[in-house]
């Protein structure tokens, strides 16, 4: 599919004509997106305040072994204990803050989750962002105060502590940047006939932490994305059998996965769960049947912005957040409301950085947006193209192979250098190498290097670029 990121007429004002505006901005969320948004906004001369409902910065990377948190101490995390990154660290980090192996941390190319949290904390400290963040402060409502040039936003929030939940407070801001993430509201496979009468246990990957509770059980894992494959492999270490369903693999068969030490791990190629029966049997579309104790849904998440529910301008329809110009600005409310971090199937941190730079530049007047009408036309054309290709709405923010086209477009708007080629190639190589046959093992195989081949050359280019930022 060719997405519409045409080279527009120059929308950037010359440096000399820059009518810099400085505004007070509420940033919702202090994960990777909120942190880099705060940095870019402040660099541009704005005054950001970052609201974070958790008690630390880092978002999903703050591991919580409670599994889903509680009403008293809501968790932002959906990570499992064994999680390692699915991208090489070099391609994961922000553009000007390399994700180096440092000190006594986890030096692996695909490090564990604690290392990513440490990196984000280092980023926050390095750019002096912690003072901008109000922890344990949840935004509950965002409403528009006035229209036109004097438009402002009333942000209602409450602060939580372990013992008390204070009354909601309010503040008025010139603009709101939503960085609240999209890994909190689980999406379940909802088309399994007979599931209500099935006696087993159903879980979503967001509450999975460790394999021990699945000792000697038969587990069906639905979904073959990074979490599904990691979790299936994790559980296979203790379970009696693990059955992994894969909708998109080419052959319609059921087979054991060729993973050393995991001869209890079955892959149902091209086959989802068809139905569940009262005696505990799960029937797959390939005709095979298994009596299972657990179904683990690794089927993704829903976008949700409850704090915006009073504003009918933005809606979420089958996981399409819209209407949004280039996944960021609602044409009718731009630039006073924006969203960072909606695209998925991407290397997120660099993309967040470019989106944030764009938002900051538009708010200051350094970068000009098209008119509301032009943005609306662009969004309509984009949606029409998706629909002509038969893509369901829920793929609207899935970048597939278009991430770098999008990033180049953003860089053009921001008048920044394009993302360098080694990043693009390293990302593509990571996708290629992460196959079902090498489920999990690709990380350590890559760590070993490829003896001076293409990968090693890309990593050498990365390190040369990083030297610019390593003082
Ligand atoms: P989040 O990290 O979710 O942060 C959002 C923040 O907003 C949270 O701290 C939350 O508490 C806060 N918040 C939400 N609502 C409110 C509110 N109303 N008021 C106040 N605060 C609020 N990316 C990679 O680059 N490499 C990987 O290997 C990788 N692996 C992943 C594995 C898993 C299991 C998951 C779920 C994601 C993975 N990702 C990976 C993607 C990851 O989501 C991004 O790296 C990135 O961290 C997302 O950042 P974010 O700021 O958009 O969202």
Explain what the structure shows:
- Its EC number is 1.-.-.-.
- Belongs to the FMO family.
- Keywords: FAD, Flavoprotein, Monooxygenase, NADP, Oxidoreductase.
- This is Flavin-containing monooxygenase.
- By secondary structure, the protein is of the alpha/beta class.
- Helix content is 25%, strand content 18%.
- The strands form 6 sheets. The protein has a 6-stranded mixed beta sheet, covered by helices on one side. Strands 3-2-1-7-21 form a 5-stranded parallel beta sheet, with helices on one face. It has a 3-stranded antiparallel beta sheet with strand order 4-5-6, with no helix packed on it.
- Helix 1 runs parallel beside helix 5 (348-364), helix 5 runs parallel beside helix 7 (403-414) and helix 8 packs across helix 10.
- The longest helix is centred in the C-terminal third of the chain and has 17 residues, at 348-364.
- Flavin-adenine dinucleotide is lined by residues 28-34, 51-54, 59-61, 76, 78-79, 85-87, 92, 138-139, 179-181, 183, 227, 307, 341, 347-349.
């Amino acid at each position: 599919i060719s997405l519409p990121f045409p080279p527009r007429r120059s929308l950037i004002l010359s440096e000399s004509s820059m009518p810099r505006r400085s505004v007070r901005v509420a940033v919702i969320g202090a994960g990777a997106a909120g942190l880099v948004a705060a940095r870019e906004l402040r660099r541009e001369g704005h005054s950001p305040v970052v609201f974070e409902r958790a008690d630390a910065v880092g978002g999903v990377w703050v591991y919580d072994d409670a599994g889903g948190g509680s009403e008293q101490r809501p968790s932002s995390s959906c990570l499992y204990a064994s999680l390692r990154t699915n991208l090489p660290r070099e391609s994961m980090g922000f553009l000007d803050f390399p994700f180096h192996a440092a000190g006594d941390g986890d030096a692996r190319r695909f490090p564990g989750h604690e290392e990513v949290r440490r990196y984000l904390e280092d980023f926050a400290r390095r750019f002096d962002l912690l003072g901008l963040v109000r922890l344990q402060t949840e935004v509950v409502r965002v409403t528009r105060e006035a229209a036109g040039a004097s438009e402002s936003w009333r942000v209602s929030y409450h602060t939580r502590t372990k013992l008390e939940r204070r009354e909601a407070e309010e503040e008025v801001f010139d603009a709101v940047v939503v960085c609240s993430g999209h890994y909190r509201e689980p999406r379940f496979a909802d088309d399994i006939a007979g599931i209500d009468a099935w006696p087993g246990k159903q879980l979503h990957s967001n509450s999975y932490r460790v394999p021990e509770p699945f000792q000697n059980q038969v587990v069906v894992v639905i979904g073959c994305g990074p979490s599904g494959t990691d979790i299936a492999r994790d559980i296979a270490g203790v379970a009696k059998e693990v059955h992994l369903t894969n909708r998109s693999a080419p052959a319609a068969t059921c087979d054991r996965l060729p993973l050393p030490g995991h001869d209890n791990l079955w892959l149902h190629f091209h086959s989802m769960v068809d139905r569940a029966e009262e005696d505990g049997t799960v029937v797959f579309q390939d005709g095979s049947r298994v009596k299972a104790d657990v179904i683990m849904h690794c089927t993704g998440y829903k976008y949700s912005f409850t704090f915006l529910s009073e504003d009918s301008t933005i809606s979420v329809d089958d996981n399409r957040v819209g209407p949004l110009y280039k996944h960021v600005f609602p044409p009718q409310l731009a630039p006073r409301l924006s969203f960072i971090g909606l695209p998925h199937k991407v290397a997120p941190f660099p993309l967040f950085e470019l989106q944030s730079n764009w938002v900051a530049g538009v708010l200051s007047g350094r970068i000009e947006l098209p008119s509301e009408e032009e943005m609306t036309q662009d969004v309509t054309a984009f949606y029409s193209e998706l629909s002509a290709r038969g893509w369901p709405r829920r793929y609207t923010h899935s970048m597939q192979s278009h991430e770098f086209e999008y990033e180049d477009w953003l860089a053009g708007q921001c008048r920044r250098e394009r993302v360098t080629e080694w990043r693009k190639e390293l990302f593509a190589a990571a996708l290629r190498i992460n196959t079902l046959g090498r489920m999990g093992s690709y990380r350590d195989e890559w760590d070993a290097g490829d003896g001076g081949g293409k990968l090693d050359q890309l990593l050498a280019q990365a390190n040369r670029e990083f030297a610019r930022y390593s003082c």
